[in-house]
Amino acid sequence: MNRYRQRDAAPLKSLPADHPFHGIAARVMGLVVAFFSLSMVFFGLAVIADAQHPDSISIYVWGRAITELVLGSAYFLFVYLWKKGKFWGYLRMLMTSALAGVSTISVVVLHGSYPWWLRLEQVVQFIVVATIFYMLTRPPMRQRFSKKPIPADSKKSTQ
Description:
Oligomer: single chain
Order of helices and strands: HHHHHH
Number of domains: 1
Low-confidence stretches: none
């Protein structure tokens, strides 16, 4: 059995309407929309700054802007899979949130040719991804995607 499939859970649609995971999913989806919206604002600010002062935006800022748009788009796929109960989607959301958090903090803290508005946007981005990461690492969520025991009759059929 695939190691990821051992950790799959029931889709959120199959849970009762009053189950707390529906509220968590709605909040996570709102945060993903916020992340993507911030990424679009960041890209828009970079375009405006470059239009007003050509060549004022470094290649690093453009790379960051494009990367955030791609990442924001990928988050929607990860949320879709996570809501379907796929461990793969949960794991990718967890990894992406952790790496995005480290990346945003590095832009804010490290010396570089970043404009002030970029650093401010990155602080807000960090708050969003840190909140997603926090929500995904709560014990009920981790338990939902914990490794399931393999039934004895399926062990016999694989041997």
